[in-house]
């Protein structure tokens, strides 16, 4: 009878549950557009056909193994193994693999890459498929990576130097402070002992078999997946995968794949780290809790994710409002709930970057903001805006679903293989959101933080500048701020003012389109408006819900005195921070919630510019923002003071960085220490900004819309678009004045210059070699200079990295400019060990001389041409590319039809032309070498100079 009553009770309970509650525990379906399969050996695959872009496949080889699985003698060898897969497999000896893939048009380090973390390793291989044989070649590579890497002993020794250089790149204040923090906050956790980069003593001395053993133990089919998204036939791809990967055998006695956790602890762990080179003062708190398993895939788990997302949007909106107050209590702050190290643990985080040395004030403000939510909750208005933002995001994803590029899609499937959870299409995600949205109540969200903030399993981490160490609160003070917040009577409910309901209340009388000209070849239409403004429009179907805008006018800071440089260059940011029209910056953000439209304006050295993007449904709002950027500058001294405080603190902090100091001094060496047009915005210089003058300058630069050229690219319907232009752009203030820039004499110094910059305590260097000079600016010459840079970059990787083991990365780049006078900059750069600077510099310059002498192969050139053509074929179908190129061509005066001739320009790059351009421009007449060295080298170099003299 007792059992019968029990079951009757369950039936009664089931009857009163809502349909959503019943369905909440059912597993959600996967995205129907992806095929998921598992071979007999345990190997998993994900296949998704997608023709964006055409003739391209994004492959990922994912392994559920990373540094957390290393034995004591293998610390760093999960990552080292990743490197070795590019250094020899069954079908590709030594460096043949990279050479083979470069011939397909892939760029090493860009397209072709990989990463290793604690629990995973992922290889990235995008392949062009215009040649049908490429898929088979790619699968050969991927199959070799999966089970046929050779781990040649000689290649292992060569790669030690490369990995040590990657380790060297990580040296710095952040790493030193991490070494002080993690042993405390992660005590007892394996994560504290298994950083993916490893330990130098292991990397330099490990036995060959230690790396091979990691590969044998963990690169096995039951821990692997191949993810393929792109332009292919899924049925054929599935057959190929079975052929290439079905025969892979796993170990006979596989080691258990353990997933590690963070042990629970009582009370609060507090860790404080300081460093001379720290670039800020931060406090972070983690409240660690057992959480919902990441692998859950139910409507209820989806709903919980939405609840947490809504909470995050609302709390961070409040924190952002505090940042924008006249006297902001901190530099910035955020709070969130989500996963942490260990799959079974979640954490609620409070993070605050305190301004200057105000640790207590900043921490107190962040804790109080969180306590205000815990005590009083959010408002209905806040929830309404958060819901609108969420829904807008989901709806846009649905609109763009058939236009999403493969590289945007593939990582969703990688994440599903590695971590489980839901795998929903955009349409499914929106459908489930609309199902759960009516069930979400404000009271439920307001309860969340009460379960997250707790008294145990709590960590506090402080990272600070050494000079501020005496200002850091004691452990007792930190705990007091946290624990006493519940009794703080000064914390009052959140109150927000009502905001205006429209951006423009009185519309100006519309203007007219007075002339229209369409180029049938490019599809670009030029419209002339009644106020003299020229607008260039390129309607596309590359995206369903995207319109991009750029506009420019010559003049910029060059028209003002250099002593006003700070006011001119920051005018755009200042105006933006003060809001627009009747709206403060905070109120504007609230008004724009649920809308996709943004406009930004700025003033550079030689031009003023404006840019933005919009969804189709929000085009009128976008046009209103654009109109107001020209016509309704808002003066708000409190907002200006807030911006100035935060900006001064930002620049005061970043100067602690040796890399930043190096960049500043390098600019001074290149352009002259006393050049008034090269100025780092120090707090002292920022104090020279005059708000009224900054506003006046901004208004001057945007007073004449007819002096601007506007470009619109995207899903534009000309029938509805023209009236918007007539209403909002044809009514902008205009006159007949046409301005240009002035040559301010900002030229790179002439001659041969070699200087060292001594900054930082770490044993690492940076080499930058700049060649400059007069230039015959043309699209053809630009292509040649970029080709030289590409060939040299590949040769430097071959020589400096693979042969010498002296760098992790190295590259060359060309930067031609057309105005105020045609000039070029050609840069060679790489980081390295200080002892290797001279040898590596000489090796890099030797490779440049070889190019000038014609000592490169046709294959070397063809790699660059192939990559350029593939990039062009992909770029020419992107709104951002057309927007950028149309703007650039308007500035140079080139014909828009030239945009379409990227392949022809690539094919015109000949061996003879490359050699001629290299010899014409890349001489040693104007060469500046600036080397960053550790501070402790300065004394030794000075002694050496004295000895020489």
- Fourth-tier CATH superfamily name of the largest domain: Metalloenzyme, LuxS/M16 peptidase-like
Helix content: 40-55%
Q: What structural class should be given to the helix and strand makeup?
A: alpha+beta
Instruction: Please give the CATH architecture of the largest domain.
Output: 2-Layer Sandwich
Shape: globular
CATH fold-type name of the largest domain: Cytochrome Bc1 Complex, Chain A, domain 1
Strands of the largest sheet, in order across it?
12-13-14-18-15-17-16
Number of helices: 32
Average of pLDDT: 93
CATH top level of the largest domain is Alpha Beta
Largest sheet: 7 strands, mixed
Uncertain spans, ≥5 residues at pLDDT below 50? Answer: 1-17
What is the rounded distance between the termini? 106 Å
Beta-strand proportion: 15-25%
State the domain count: 4
């Amino acid at each position: 009878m007792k059992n019968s009553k029990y079951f009757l009770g369950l039936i009664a309970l089931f009857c009163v549950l809502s349909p959503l509650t019943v369905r909440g525990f059912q597993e959600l379906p996967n995205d129907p557009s992806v095929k998921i399969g598992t071979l007999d050996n345990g190997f998993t695959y994900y296949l998704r056909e997608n023709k964006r872009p055409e003739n391209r496949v994004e492959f990922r080889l994912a392994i559920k193994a990373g540094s957390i699985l290393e034995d004591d003698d293998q610390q760093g060898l999960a990552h080292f193994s990743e490197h070795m897969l590019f250094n020899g497999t069954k079908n590709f000896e030594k460096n043949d693999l990279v050479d083979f893939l470069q011939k397909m048009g892939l760029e090493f380090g860009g397209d072709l890459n990989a990463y290793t973390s604690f629990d995973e390793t992922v290889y990235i291989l995008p392949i062009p498929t215009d040649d049908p044989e490429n898929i088979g070649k790619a699968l050969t590579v991927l199959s070799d990576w999966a089970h046929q890497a050779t781990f040649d002993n000689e290649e292992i020794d060569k790669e030690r130097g490369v990995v040590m250089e990657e380790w060297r790149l990580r040296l710095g204040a952040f790493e030193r402070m991490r070494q002080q923090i993690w042993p405390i906050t992660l005590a007892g956790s394996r994560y504290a002992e298994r950083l993916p980069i490893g330990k130098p003593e292991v990397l330099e001395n490990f036995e060959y078999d230690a790396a091979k053993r990691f590969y044998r133990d963990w690169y096995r089919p039951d821990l692997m997946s191949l993810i393929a998204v792109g332009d292919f036939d899924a049925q054929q791809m599935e057959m190929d995968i079975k052929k290439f990967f079905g025969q892979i055998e796993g170990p006979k006695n596989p080691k258990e794949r353990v997933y590690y956790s963070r042990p629970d602890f009582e009370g609060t762990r507090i860790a404080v780290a300081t460093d001379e080179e720290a670039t800020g003062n931060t406090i972070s708190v983690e409240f660690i809790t057992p959480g919902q398993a990441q692998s859950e895939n139910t409507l209820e788990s989806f709903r919980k994710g939405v609840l947490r997302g809504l909470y995050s949007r609302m709390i961070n909106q409040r924190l952002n409002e505090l940042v924008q107050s006249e006297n902001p209590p901190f530099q910035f702050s955020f709070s969130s709930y989500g996963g942490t190290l260990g799959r079974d643990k979640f954490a609620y985080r409070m993070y605050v970057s305190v301004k200057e040395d105000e640790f207590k004030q900043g921490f107190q403000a962040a804790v109080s903001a969180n306590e205000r939510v815990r005590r009083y909750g959010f408002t209905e208005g806040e929830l309404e805006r958060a819901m609108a933002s969420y829904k807008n995001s989901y709806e846009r994803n649905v609109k763009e679903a058939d236009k999403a590029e493969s590289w945007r899609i593939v990582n969703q499937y990688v994440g599903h293989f590695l971590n489980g959870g839901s795998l929903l299409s955009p349409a499914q995600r929106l459908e489930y959101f609309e199902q759960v949205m009516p069930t979400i109540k404000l009271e439920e969200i307001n309860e969340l933080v009460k379960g997250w903030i707790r008294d145990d399993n709590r960590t506090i981490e402080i990272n600070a500048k050494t000079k501020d160490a005496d200002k850091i609160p004691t452990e007792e003070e930190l705990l007091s701020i946290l624990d006493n917040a519940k009794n703080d009577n000064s914390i009052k409910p959140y109150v927000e003012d009502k905001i205006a309901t429209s951006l423009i209340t009185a519309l100006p009388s519309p203007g007219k389109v007075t002339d229209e000209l369409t180029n049938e070849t490019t599809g670009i239409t030029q419209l002339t408006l009644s106020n003299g403004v020229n607008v260039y429009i390129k309607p596309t179907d590359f995206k369903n819900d995207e319109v991009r805008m750029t506009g420019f006018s010559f003049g910029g800071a060059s028209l003002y005195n250099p002593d006003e440089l700070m006011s001119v260059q920051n005018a755009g940011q200042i105006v933006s921070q003060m809001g627009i029209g009747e709206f403060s910056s905070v109120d504007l953000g609230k008004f724009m919630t649920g809308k996709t439209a943004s406009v930004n304006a700025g003033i550079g050295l030689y031009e003023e510019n404006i840019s933005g993007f919009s969804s189709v449904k929000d085009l009128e709002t976008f046009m209103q923002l654009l109109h107001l950027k020209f016509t309704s500058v808002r003066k708000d001294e409190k907002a200006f003071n807030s911006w100035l405080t935060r900006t001064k603190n930002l620049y005061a902090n970043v100067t602690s960085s040796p890399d930043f100091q190096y960049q500043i001094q390098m600019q001074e060496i290149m352009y002259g220490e006393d050049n008034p047009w090269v100025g780092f915005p120090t707090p002292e210089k920022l104090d020279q900004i005059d708000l009224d003058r900054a506003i006046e300058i901004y208004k001057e630069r945007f007073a004449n819309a007819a002096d601007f050229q506007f470009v619109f690219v995207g899903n534009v319907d000309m029938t509805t678009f023209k009236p918007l232009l007539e209403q909002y752009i044809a009514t902008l203030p205009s006159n007949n004045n046409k301005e240009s820039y002035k040559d301010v004499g900002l030229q790179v110094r002439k001659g041969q210059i070699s200087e060292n910059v001594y900054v930082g305590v770490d044993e690492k260097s940076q080499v930058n070699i700049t060649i400059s000079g007069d230039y015959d600016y043309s699209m053809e010459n630009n292509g040649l200079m970029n080709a030289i840079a590409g060939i040299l970059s590949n040769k430097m990787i071959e020589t400096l990295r693979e042969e010498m083991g002296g760098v992790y990365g190295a590259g060359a780049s060309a930067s031609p400019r057309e105005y105020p006078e045609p000039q070029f900059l050609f840069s060679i750069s790489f980081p390295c060990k200080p002892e290797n600077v001279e040898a590596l510099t000489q090796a890099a310059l030797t490779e440049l001389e070889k190019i000038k002498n014609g000592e490169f192969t046709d294959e070397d050139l063809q790699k660059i041409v192939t990559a350029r053509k593939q990039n062009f074929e992909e770029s020419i179908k992107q709104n951002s590319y057309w927007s950028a190129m149309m703007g650039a061509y308007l500035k140079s005066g080139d014909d828009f039809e030239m945009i379409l001739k990227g392949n022809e320009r690539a094919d015109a790059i000949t061996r003879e032309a490359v050699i001629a351009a290299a010899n014409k421009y890349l001489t040693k007449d104007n060469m500046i070498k600036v080397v960053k060295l550790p501070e402790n080298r300065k004394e030794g170099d000075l002694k050496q100079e004295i000895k020489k003299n």
